[in-house]
Amino acid sequence: MAHRSIRHFTAEKLTPTEIATLITAAQHAATSTFSQQVSIISVTDPAKLAILGDITGHHWLEKAGHYFLFIADQARNAQLAGDSATAQANLHSTDKLLAGIFDATIAIEAVVTAGESLGLGSTIMGSVLNDVPRLIQTFDLPRLTFPVLGLAIGHPAEQPEQKPRLPQELMHFTNTYRPLDPADPQLVAYDRTITSYYQQRGSHQREETYTHHILTEFSRDPQQRAGITAALKQQGFLTDVPTE
Ligand SMILES: Cc1cc2nc3c(=O)[nH]c(=O)nc-3n(C[C@H](O)[C@H](O)[C@H](O)COP(=O)(O)O)c2cc1C
Questions:
Q1: Distance between Cα 122 and ligand 1 center (Å)
Q2: Residues flanking ligand 1, CB < 6 Å
Q3: Are 161 and 202 in contact (CB under 8 A)?
Q4: Per-residue pLDDT tens digits for 87-104
Q5: Cβ pair 19, 42 in contact under 8 A
Q6: Where does residue 55 rank: exposed (0-12), middle (13-18), buried (19+ CB within 10 A)?
Q7: In 10 A of CB 146, how many CB atoms?
Q8: Which molecular function GO terms apply here (predicted)?
Q9: Ligand 1: distance of its center to the CA of 60 in Å?
Q10: Rounded to the nearest whole angstrom, what is the distance from the C-alpha of residue 124 to the centroid of ligand 1?
Q11: 165 FRET partner, CA 20 to 30 A, in 98, 136, 180, 209?
Q12: Atom number in ligand 1 closest to CA 160
Protein backbone atom coordinates (compact mmCIF):
# COMPACT_ATOMS: atom_id res chain seq x y z
CA MET A 1 0.00 0.00 0.00
CA ALA A 2 3.07 2.25 0.04
CA HIS A 3 3.64 1.57 -3.67
CA ARG A 4 4.71 4.29 -6.04
CA SER A 5 6.67 3.84 -9.29
CA ILE A 6 10.32 4.86 -8.95
CA ARG A 7 12.11 6.33 -11.97
CA HIS A 8 15.28 7.73 -10.34
CA PHE A 9 17.81 5.41 -8.78
CA THR A 10 21.10 5.69 -6.91
CA ALA A 11 24.19 4.34 -8.70
CA GLU A 12 24.14 1.22 -6.50
CA LYS A 13 23.62 -1.95 -8.53
CA LEU A 14 21.62 -4.86 -7.13
CA THR A 15 23.73 -7.63 -5.67
CA PRO A 16 23.52 -11.21 -7.03
CA THR A 17 21.81 -12.16 -3.74
CA GLU A 18 19.17 -9.44 -4.18
CA ILE A 19 18.58 -10.53 -7.77
CA ALA A 20 18.23 -14.17 -6.71
CA THR A 21 15.77 -13.17 -3.95
CA LEU A 22 13.61 -11.26 -6.44
CA ILE A 23 13.63 -14.18 -8.85
CA THR A 24 12.64 -16.48 -5.98
CA ALA A 25 9.63 -14.23 -5.33
CA ALA A 26 8.71 -14.48 -9.01
CA GLN A 27 9.08 -18.25 -8.97
CA HIS A 28 6.71 -18.59 -6.02
CA ALA A 29 3.95 -16.54 -7.59
CA ALA A 30 0.82 -18.45 -8.55
CA THR A 31 0.96 -19.95 -12.03
CA SER A 32 -1.93 -20.99 -14.25
CA THR A 33 -2.40 -24.81 -14.38
CA PHE A 34 1.02 -25.11 -12.66
CA SER A 35 2.59 -24.63 -16.07
CA GLN A 36 5.18 -21.98 -15.09
CA GLN A 37 4.80 -20.20 -18.41
CA VAL A 38 7.06 -17.25 -17.63
CA SER A 39 10.77 -16.66 -18.25
CA ILE A 40 12.75 -13.66 -17.06
CA ILE A 41 15.75 -12.12 -18.80
CA SER A 42 18.16 -10.04 -16.73
CA VAL A 43 19.50 -7.33 -19.01
CA THR A 44 23.03 -6.29 -18.04
CA ASP A 45 24.60 -5.61 -21.47
CA PRO A 46 24.85 -1.79 -21.79
CA ALA A 47 24.19 -2.02 -25.56
CA LYS A 48 20.95 -3.94 -24.95
CA LEU A 49 19.95 -1.54 -22.15
CA ALA A 50 20.46 1.31 -24.62
CA ILE A 51 18.17 -0.47 -27.11
CA LEU A 52 15.55 -0.79 -24.36
CA GLY A 53 16.04 2.93 -23.66
CA ASP A 54 15.38 3.66 -27.35
CA ILE A 55 12.33 1.39 -27.55
CA THR A 56 10.68 2.68 -24.37
CA GLY A 57 11.91 6.28 -24.59
CA HIS A 58 13.00 5.78 -20.96
CA HIS A 59 16.77 6.15 -21.15
CA TRP A 60 16.82 6.48 -17.37
CA LEU A 61 16.33 2.71 -17.20
CA GLU A 62 20.01 2.37 -18.15
CA LYS A 63 20.88 3.78 -14.70
CA ALA A 64 18.61 1.43 -12.73
CA GLY A 65 20.07 -1.02 -10.23
CA HIS A 66 18.87 -3.85 -12.47
CA TYR A 67 16.57 -4.54 -15.42
CA PHE A 68 14.31 -7.54 -15.95
CA LEU A 69 12.32 -8.47 -19.04
CA PHE A 70 9.32 -10.73 -18.40
CA ILE A 71 8.44 -13.16 -21.16
CA ALA A 72 5.23 -15.15 -21.64
CA ASP A 73 6.77 -18.51 -22.42
CA GLN A 74 5.09 -21.55 -23.98
CA ALA A 75 8.28 -22.54 -25.84
CA ARG A 76 9.60 -24.47 -22.84
CA ASN A 77 6.29 -26.31 -22.47
CA ALA A 78 6.23 -27.04 -26.21
CA GLN A 79 9.56 -28.84 -25.79
CA LEU A 80 8.25 -30.76 -22.78
CA ALA A 81 4.96 -31.68 -24.50
CA GLY A 82 6.81 -33.38 -27.35
CA ASP A 83 4.86 -34.07 -30.53
CA SER A 84 1.37 -34.63 -29.12
CA ALA A 85 -0.81 -32.86 -31.70
CA THR A 86 -3.43 -31.83 -29.13
CA ALA A 87 -0.80 -30.40 -26.79
CA GLN A 88 0.84 -28.48 -29.62
CA ALA A 89 -2.52 -27.05 -30.75
CA ASN A 90 -3.24 -25.97 -27.19
CA LEU A 91 0.13 -24.29 -26.81
CA HIS A 92 -0.64 -22.05 -29.79
CA SER A 93 -4.11 -21.12 -28.49
CA THR A 94 -5.27 -17.72 -27.31
CA ASP A 95 -6.11 -19.38 -23.99
CA LYS A 96 -2.47 -20.36 -23.46
CA LEU A 97 -1.23 -17.01 -24.72
CA LEU A 98 -3.35 -15.41 -22.00
CA ALA A 99 -2.04 -17.92 -19.46
CA GLY A 100 1.52 -16.86 -20.29
CA ILE A 101 0.58 -13.20 -19.99
CA PHE A 102 -1.15 -13.87 -16.64
CA ASP A 103 1.89 -15.72 -15.31
CA ALA A 104 4.33 -13.03 -16.46
CA THR A 105 2.16 -10.26 -15.03
CA ILE A 106 1.65 -11.95 -11.67
CA ALA A 107 5.38 -12.71 -11.48
CA ILE A 108 6.35 -9.11 -12.17
CA GLU A 109 4.08 -7.82 -9.42
CA ALA A 110 5.58 -10.37 -7.01
CA VAL A 111 9.01 -8.91 -7.85
CA VAL A 112 7.74 -5.34 -7.42
CA THR A 113 6.29 -6.16 -3.99
CA ALA A 114 9.29 -8.21 -2.86
CA GLY A 115 11.55 -5.37 -4.00
CA GLU A 116 9.55 -2.82 -2.03
CA SER A 117 9.81 -5.04 1.05
CA LEU A 118 13.61 -4.86 0.63
CA GLY A 119 13.58 -1.06 0.30
CA LEU A 120 13.92 -1.16 -3.51
CA GLY A 121 11.78 0.82 -5.93
CA SER A 122 10.77 -0.03 -9.49
CA THR A 123 8.78 0.87 -12.57
CA ILE A 124 6.94 -1.66 -14.70
CA MET A 125 7.31 -0.89 -18.42
CA GLY A 126 4.66 -1.73 -20.98
CA SER A 127 6.52 0.59 -23.35
CA VAL A 128 8.82 -2.31 -24.25
CA LEU A 129 6.00 -3.15 -26.67
CA ASN A 130 6.64 0.06 -28.65
CA ASP A 131 8.82 -1.99 -31.00
CA VAL A 132 8.11 -5.70 -30.54
CA PRO A 133 10.03 -6.92 -33.63
CA ARG A 134 13.21 -5.15 -32.40
CA LEU A 135 12.70 -6.55 -28.90
CA ILE A 136 12.22 -10.09 -30.23
CA GLN A 137 15.35 -9.76 -32.35
CA THR A 138 17.48 -8.19 -29.60
CA PHE A 139 16.72 -10.95 -27.12
CA ASP A 140 16.51 -13.87 -29.60
CA LEU A 141 12.97 -14.70 -28.46
CA PRO A 142 11.88 -17.97 -30.10
CA ARG A 143 8.43 -18.89 -31.36
CA LEU A 144 5.87 -19.44 -28.60
CA THR A 145 7.43 -16.72 -26.47
CA PHE A 146 6.27 -13.12 -26.24
CA PRO A 147 7.69 -10.15 -24.32
CA VAL A 148 5.15 -8.83 -21.82
CA LEU A 149 6.67 -6.20 -19.56
CA GLY A 150 10.02 -4.76 -18.48
CA LEU A 151 10.99 -3.81 -14.94
CA ALA A 152 13.57 -1.21 -13.93
CA ILE A 153 14.40 -1.75 -10.27
CA GLY A 154 16.94 -0.32 -7.86
CA HIS A 155 17.65 1.80 -4.84
CA PRO A 156 15.30 4.79 -4.94
CA ALA A 157 16.79 8.26 -5.36
CA GLU A 158 13.33 9.85 -5.07
CA GLN A 159 10.24 9.48 -2.91
CA PRO A 160 7.40 10.71 -5.12
CA GLU A 161 3.93 11.42 -3.75
CA GLN A 162 1.58 8.47 -4.00
CA LYS A 163 -0.93 8.71 -6.85
CA PRO A 164 -4.43 8.66 -5.37
CA ARG A 165 -6.59 5.85 -6.75
CA LEU A 166 -10.30 5.80 -7.61
CA PRO A 167 -12.66 5.60 -4.61
CA GLN A 168 -13.45 1.97 -3.81
CA GLU A 169 -17.18 2.57 -4.47
CA LEU A 170 -16.32 3.17 -8.15
CA MET A 171 -14.27 0.01 -8.63
CA HIS A 172 -15.40 -2.58 -6.08
CA PHE A 173 -18.95 -3.89 -6.45
CA THR A 174 -20.96 -6.58 -4.73
CA ASN A 175 -22.61 -9.34 -6.73
CA THR A 176 -23.16 -7.29 -9.87
CA TYR A 177 -21.34 -4.77 -12.01
CA ARG A 178 -22.31 -1.15 -11.43
CA PRO A 179 -21.75 1.11 -14.48
CA LEU A 180 -20.23 4.51 -13.80
CA ASP A 181 -22.48 7.54 -13.59
CA PRO A 182 -20.28 10.35 -14.99
CA ALA A 183 -22.09 12.77 -12.65
CA ASP A 184 -21.33 10.62 -9.56
CA PRO A 185 -20.20 13.05 -6.82
CA GLN A 186 -17.42 10.57 -5.89
CA LEU A 187 -16.02 10.87 -9.43
CA VAL A 188 -16.29 14.65 -9.34
CA ALA A 189 -14.43 14.64 -6.01
CA TYR A 190 -11.79 12.24 -7.39
CA ASP A 191 -11.25 14.50 -10.41
CA ARG A 192 -10.57 17.32 -7.93
CA THR A 193 -8.21 15.10 -5.92
CA ILE A 194 -6.21 14.25 -9.05
CA THR A 195 -6.14 17.89 -10.15
CA SER A 196 -4.57 18.90 -6.85
CA TYR A 197 -2.21 15.88 -6.95
CA TYR A 198 -0.88 17.00 -10.36
CA GLN A 199 -0.67 20.62 -9.18
CA GLN A 200 1.19 19.85 -5.98
CA ARG A 201 3.49 16.96 -6.86
CA GLY A 202 7.22 17.52 -6.87
CA SER A 203 7.83 17.13 -10.62
CA HIS A 204 6.01 17.39 -13.98
CA GLN A 205 3.26 19.53 -12.45
CA ARG A 206 0.24 20.10 -14.65
CA GLU A 207 -3.46 20.99 -14.63
CA GLU A 208 -5.44 17.83 -15.29
CA THR A 209 -8.46 15.90 -14.00
CA TYR A 210 -8.53 12.10 -14.06
CA THR A 211 -11.32 12.22 -16.65
CA HIS A 212 -9.15 14.35 -18.91
CA HIS A 213 -6.15 12.11 -18.32
CA ILE A 214 -8.17 9.11 -19.54
CA LEU A 215 -9.32 11.01 -22.61
CA THR A 216 -5.71 11.94 -23.42
CA GLU A 217 -4.41 8.40 -22.82
CA PHE A 218 -6.99 6.83 -25.07
CA SER A 219 -6.68 9.47 -27.78
CA ARG A 220 -3.25 8.20 -28.76
CA ASP A 221 -2.91 6.87 -32.30
CA PRO A 222 -4.06 3.22 -32.16
CA GLN A 223 -1.56 2.51 -34.95
CA GLN A 224 1.30 3.37 -32.58
CA ARG A 225 1.67 -0.26 -31.51
CA ALA A 226 0.03 -1.75 -34.57
CA GLY A 227 2.83 -4.30 -34.91
CA ILE A 228 1.73 -6.28 -31.86
CA THR A 229 -0.84 -8.50 -33.59
CA ALA A 230 1.53 -9.34 -36.45
CA ALA A 231 4.32 -10.08 -33.97
CA LEU A 232 2.03 -12.35 -31.92
CA LYS A 233 1.18 -14.32 -35.07
CA GLN A 234 4.83 -14.48 -36.09
CA GLN A 235 5.65 -15.93 -32.67
CA GLY A 236 3.08 -18.67 -33.23
CA PHE A 237 0.19 -17.23 -31.24
CA LEU A 238 -3.34 -16.23 -32.33
CA THR A 239 -3.36 -19.13 -34.80
CA ASP A 240 -6.99 -19.75 -33.77
CA VAL A 241 -7.94 -16.20 -34.76
CA PRO A 242 -9.08 -15.92 -38.38
CA THR A 243 -7.09 -13.48 -40.52
CA GLU A 244 -9.11 -10.66 -42.11
C1 LIG B 1 1.25 -2.78 -17.27
C2 LIG B 1 1.95 -1.49 -16.89
C3 LIG B 1 2.74 -0.84 -17.80
C4 LIG B 1 3.41 0.32 -17.43
N5 LIG B 1 4.25 0.92 -18.34
C6 LIG B 1 4.95 2.01 -17.97
C7 LIG B 1 5.91 2.56 -18.86
O8 LIG B 1 6.13 2.07 -19.96
N9 LIG B 1 6.58 3.66 -18.46
C10 LIG B 1 6.40 4.22 -17.22
O11 LIG B 1 7.06 5.21 -16.91
N12 LIG B 1 5.50 3.70 -16.34
C13 LIG B 1 4.79 2.61 -16.69
N14 LIG B 1 3.92 2.03 -15.81
C15 LIG B 1 3.74 2.64 -14.48
C16 LIG B 1 2.42 3.43 -14.42
O17 LIG B 1 2.56 4.62 -15.13
C18 LIG B 1 2.12 3.71 -12.93
O19 LIG B 1 1.94 2.48 -12.24
C20 LIG B 1 0.85 4.56 -12.79
O21 LIG B 1 1.06 5.84 -13.33
C22 LIG B 1 0.48 4.71 -11.32
O23 LIG B 1 1.56 5.30 -10.60
P24 LIG B 1 2.23 4.57 -9.37
O25 LIG B 1 2.74 3.23 -9.83
O26 LIG B 1 3.36 5.48 -8.93
O27 LIG B 1 1.19 4.42 -8.30
C28 LIG B 1 3.25 0.87 -16.14
C29 LIG B 1 2.44 0.19 -15.21
C30 LIG B 1 1.81 -0.98 -15.58
C31 LIG B 1 0.97 -1.72 -14.55
A1: 10
A2: 3-5, 56, 58, 123-127, 149, 163
A3: yes
A4: 988 999 999 999 999 999
A5: yes
A6: buried
A7: 26
A8: oxidoreductase activity
A9: 14
A10: 6
A11: 98
A12: 26
